[in-house]
Amino acid sequence: MTDFEPNDKQQELIDATSGIHVVDAGAGTGKTFTITRRYANLLQQDETEPDDILLITFTNNAAAEMKERVVANCDYSMSALRDAPINTFHGHCHELLLRDGFSAPTHLGVDDRITSSTRLLENEVVEEDRFREFISQFADEHPEHHDFLRVLRENTSLLEVIRELAAKGIFPTSDGWYRNGESYLDGDFEAFEELFETANEPNEGANGPTQSDLRDDLSGFERDRCFLPDAPAESELRDNYPSIDHEWADRAFDEERDALKAFVHDIYFEYIEFALRQNYLNFSFLQMFAFVLLCEDHALRESVQFDHVMVDEFQDTSEIQFKLALLLAGTDNLCVVGDWKQSIYGFQYASVDNIRQFEERLGNYKRELNSDSERVAFPVDDVTGIKLEKNYRSTQSILNFSRHSLGLPATSNEEVDLDIEDDITPLTATTDHDNSNIEAFTSDDECEAILTRVQEIVGNREYAVEGEDGELRPPSHEDIAVLTRTRRFGRELQSHAREYNIPVAYEGGVELFGTEQAILLLAWLRLLEDRHSKRGWAVVLEEAGYTLDEVKTILENESYPSNMLSFRERLASAETVGGIARLVFDRYGFEDAYADALVAVLQGTFDSTTHNRGAIVRFMEQSLEADATHDVDDNPGGDSITVQTIHAAKGLEHPIVILANINQYSFPPSGGGADRIRYEDPVGLRQTKHYADAHGRPHIYDNWRYRILSKCLNRDYDEERRLMYVAITRAESHVLFSAGSSPSPLFENLPLEPETVEPDVEAAGTTRTEQSRLQVSVPVPDIPAGQSPHSLMDDRVFSDVDEGRGIEFGNQVHDFAEQYAEGAVVEPSNKDERHVAEFLDSLDGELRAEENAYLPVTVGEQQVTISGIIDLLHVTAERVDIVDYKTDLGRHAESEYRKQLSVYYHVVRAAFPDSRVTTALFYTADGDRIEIDPLSKDEIVDLIDRDYAEAQPDGEEEPIIR
Ligand SMILES: Nc1ncnc2c1ncn2[C@@H]1O[C@H](COP(=O)(O)OP(=O)(O)OP(=O)(O)O)[C@@H](O)[C@H]1O
């Protein structure tokens, strides 16, 4: 239960229980709080039951959270609200179809029906696989469409076109297009003409008008292009000055597109049929069928409409979702809540104009839906706007600063847009303090610079944040969130932080199938499919520490290690894909968020049986290739900084935000983009290239019309600016912006003076670990009584290399290794021990564990002995391998270990003068074997010399040994 009272505007919204309301709820204005209070207030009214209120949220998690909050604010229990329609659009449509919509496809002229066993196919990679199968059948059956397929880079891009059309409410029927869908495909010439005129407006020069942006952009029109013969020459196109002739607006827009429309129609319609035949629906089809059902079945629509409809995050709705909300509303009790400045889901077909032009769209959609029958029965011209203006999160300095982000240029061609300020509802802070630091910094090594800044901030009063008691306190790691536009940078930062033992919680999308866990699982699945799979063996053998040459020999002779073959047998008996995955992860000691996420994805994608292992392998390969991302919450717990993408941070708040990687090609990100057949407002369905036989040869020609059209379309970087706005408004107290050596215009145009940071990160933590020390001693009787042996290694580097696993753990692994090497019957009890066992299994020479080593050297006039214990000697006819086990998770103590192994090296060289001697560290945590290049004896002596000198009190001659 919240213990604060709603402010006046919030109360106004809570009390506004009838009529149409559009709520401009700026960042941090308590939108979720207010909606749940409003919902609870509706329930207080005698005649209103939970079933009468449809509350639409953006994600399933948001729906669940909303329910909890409602329960906290009203007399209903969770069980009473369990089936209440608090849902996402997709979820609600799915329920509607399963309950009342089996025949919905018939309204499009599709013979197949939805059944109770029709599955929702959520995984895009799996769907793309199905789509490829569909296209290859389609291509066989439709030679007339081959020229369109030829221009595509990737056939699956047509799936994107289908999703986009479906999000706009454009659906095919057996004999054409549903309702007015075709008009959208044709585009809207008047709307285009406006864009054309804006782009073609002459610019102001010092000596009169200069050429329009459009005329300028069309210079080099023919350069590097191959147009069909009907294209104008550049001189013809640009023969006017300062603008190009208006006739080119018509000539570019006016294009014969019947064949293109027929192609897209057939693909779209037949794919719907294919999906139903294969008994699945995707998210787009759920909404499509729910929409046609609600449009066509009037009695049903009326029976499923609600007295109240509320939509949260309205800025992220698509056009079909706006229309669905209207069809589901039985009365004008419609309330939409959102913030256009936080609309960041354009790539999922969100249309920001749903909220920016709410009233206009509402009228248009009602007219459209009612064109042949009354479907929206309530009046829509009385719309009340409510603005939530009090912000409960950030300081006033941050709120004021956040406004800049919406006018920043995102590319070098754009300019700062000052007019945007007029569209922004000012927010008022409610914080008691305003000590905000708003800073920018750059560095050639951005990750290190960020970590340097993090270390400067933690514990620093200048970056004080508000504690729970409302008082300012120095920040700790968990107060800091690093937000990034792209996932890649966040993951890179995470791995840098690990090297320094800086705790990081990563939240967001991960290319799950590129992780070590997935690669090992895939290798074992390949081996299950094919006992001789080279790709499978190469991965698992390398992981077990075999050298490339050894792997080659094993593969040539098919002499696979017996322990691996028996593990393969165990896997073969597992009954589910989850079971296989768990066995593999246990073998390698993966007990982490990535392993859990993989099991969840595989189990969710494939039903529980393992009969279709081939399909699982293909799925994993395709997911890897497609860089498919899945949400992973990789949180070490405790006092960690958070690293998130901006999308993942939406709706959250952090005391200190570092907005990172504001670099060229990263923010805005480069690449991607639609394929050569695309739908774009307001020009409709277009192709950027044609396959044709002109100039006497078949070729993929550039479409000159599209080239002109595209120069008039707005390049939509507005969403990038909004992403920046979302990131800044997550911050409560301080915001820092960071870039590397090539900052993006979004960074360069910030009204801040960036500082250059020289990276200087310190490894965190100071716990000693179990790592063995090399003892240096002066032989008896020279040791002065009571003095302890001296270590050659610098203890400071061992600080937390094993991230707190401790001496006991290290000793346990070493004990196990000794016993296993000596042939005792011991079972590995953790992944480190499993790595050791596998490693020892892979060796074919004599194993000698825990060998003492003594190296006498002369330091100055003094005879000194350095002693230590060699964990393992592996002796073969021509080689002796020295192996030292390390339980470290980090790697930064390696230079100190080199000293230790160098000593062993010289001892072993003397003992085996005819053999080649190798020295290696074996990191038990991941089974990595790292060869070490030993120091010479003189270098070792130098080290002891230096240590002696450091240990001498001034003027004292006698060597003192610490
Ligand atoms: N009337 C109020 N008095 C005090 N605190 C409030 C009030 N209303 C909301 N809050 C607090 O304000 C913070 C922001 O609320 P909430 O997360 O609901 O905002 P939001 O509008 O959803 O934000 P955003 O859109 O930026 O994600 C929360 O910590 C919430 O508890």
From TrEMBL:
ATP binds at residues 25-32. GO terms for biological process: recombinational repair. The keyword Transmembrane does not apply. GO terms for molecular function: 3'-5' DNA helicase activity; ATP binding; DNA binding; exonuclease activity. It holds the Pfam family UvrD_C. The keyword Lyase does not apply. Keywords: ATP-binding, DNA damage, DNA repair, DNA-binding, Exonuclease, Helicase, Hydrolase, Isomerase, Nuclease, Nucleotide-binding. Its EC number is 5.6.2.4. Residues 4-395 form the UvrD-like helicase ATP-binding domain. It catalyses: Couples ATP hydrolysis with the unwinding of duplex DNA by translocating in the 3'-5' direction; ATP + H2O = ADP + phosphate + H(+). It comes from the Archaea. This is DNA 3'-5' helicase. It comes from Halobellus ruber. The lineage of its organism: Archaea, Methanobacteriati, Methanobacteriota, Stenosarchaea group, Halobacteria.
